[in-house]
Design brief:
By secondary structure, this protein is an alpha+beta fold. The chain has three helices and four strands.
RNA sequence: ACAACAGUUCGUUCUGUCGCUGGCAAAGACGCCGCAUGCGGCGUCUCCACCAGAGGAAAGUCGGGACAACACAGAGCACCAUGCUUCCUAACGGGAAGGAUCCCGGGAUAUAAAGGCCCGGGAGACAGAAAGUGCCACAGAAAAUGACUACCUCCGGGAAAAGAUGCACCCCGGUGCAUCACCCCGGCAGGAAAAGGUGAAAACGCGGUGUAAGAGACCACGGUCCGGCCGGGUGAUCGGCCGGAGGGGUAAACCUCAUGGGUUGAAAGACCAAGUAUACCGGCUGUUAAGGGUUGCUCGCCCGAUGCCGGAGGGUAGGUCGCUAAAGCCUGCCGGCGACGGCAGGCUCAGAUAAAUGACAGAAUUAAACAAAAUCCUGCUUACAGAACUGUUGUUUCU
RNA sequence: GGCCCCAUAGCUCAACUGAAUAGAGUAGCUGACUACGGAUCAGCAGGUUGGGGGUUUGAAUCCCUCUGGGGUCA
């Protein structure tokens, strides 16, 4: 099981980010807000994701970096759950995870909540693919 | 040894597993080219290893630059900034050393007081108020050509018991009249700035002479300011002598003087690729031009037929460079009180572009403070657990 | 990343080039009016002028610095 998090797995295109936030679907998972949309990509990876911590809640760059790195770490270690549900379906997805909590949370809690929202995304993907 | 203050330096480390960004070269895949047909070259991608990977403040964006574009010919006005001296620096509103002023503490001398002198510590945007304008509430006579009270002179009036002088009468000490002094009231009069409750601030301080009353009007002592000469110092300035002045404060009020500043900032800018609309509406002009050109204005300057300007709208939002070898860092020596500079040797130390330093476990002391590069450098300011060193002061113990 | 602006009573705003009690509307409290409430009338309270420092006799105002908030630039 690969645990990498390379550039192809991150959402970098300005154009796709604009499409995602204007036309994507949204749900909430306690400290996070998830925006997702099915989209065909130029890369073989099943999902492209971006992580964001808004400046409104965390004024200092150090705190934003800390939370975003914990989110990235949790996604990197658990993303195989999501990838397994996409194998063979041929669909691709773009997704944004925004931290909406107002205080800094430990890694263990972030890890548990990331697993929950990945399972929700798997359900949404199965609705489309049947 | 402990505590306080000041300054300087550092500001987590190691091991294992997984992961991120850049570099490097070996290997593999793909594409192109050359031919000697399975080898070479070039480009892109992947990738085992290996190497490097946030700060003293990276922050605030406060000051100054480098660099870039614009119109980097030029002139004037306006505007802005700075303001003791010398030095450091690429430059600065930064820094070093010094000077004067002010404040605090102590001491000596002297005494009417203020002040000055010596020692120690501290502070500040520290040019000019003697070029001009404005302002200085309330209180107070008055806040800057000072005159309200009180004072003096002059003028007018009043009062009269007592005073002085002169004249007259009675007749030998009295009476009457006039004038003066004293007293009171008044004045579009003058003098004076000494006393006066106020105020943040009151027209050099104090003592005398002087005068109608007074006053730096004059004198002694002291203090402030200006100019000249002599001496010390690169200079600010200090000391001495001579002459003069008497002038409230405020320039982080306008202002004056001196010095400096063109404007805009890497979303600057250069190149490549892709794509769209040479469409629509309104306005303007014919070469001695309309109009335009990231300077506040005027002049000047430049562009100006593939017409220009404005409105509304359409397209793109990818890549390369700028982008890190620099006013660079470390060590040693030399010069300088110091900031700093010079010489020699060595080193190469993030370069991302939705944006990289993390997670977990263990150990050292245990959980480690403040806090994240975005073109770069330099200073300032602000935040900050802990550690080390140096100096000063105080207390205690030992010799 | 650069540039610019703002902060005054619980709320919305004044106070012009410094002048001594910082003012108005609304909200609040008390009383009057009313059978009760609203409206109205009278009165009261409410401010470290975002924090700190400086200039000045005197600062909401002028200067410096910090904090918080907002705008703008391909």
């Amino acid at each position: 099981m690969k645990q990498t998090f390379s550039k192809e797995e991150r959402l970098c295109s300005h154009r796709l980010i604009g499409i995602l936030f204007s036309k994507g679907h949204t749900f909430h998972q306690k400290p996070f807000r998830v925006t997702w949309k099915h989209e065909s990509l130029d890369f073989p990876t099943p999902v492209q994701v971006l992580m964001s911590v808004p400046k409104y809640n965390f004024r200092k760059a150090v705190h934003r970096n800390l939370i975003r790195r914990r989110m990235k770490e949790a996604y990197r270690l658990n993303k195989q759950l999501l990838y397994d549900s996409f194998t063979g379906t041929g669909t691709q997805m773009i997704c944004a995870i925004t931290y909406t909590g107002k205080e800094i949370v430990d890694y263990d809690l972030i890890d548990a909540k990331i697993i929950l929202l990945l399972q929700r995304l798997i359900e949404e993907n199965e609705k489309v693919t049947g």
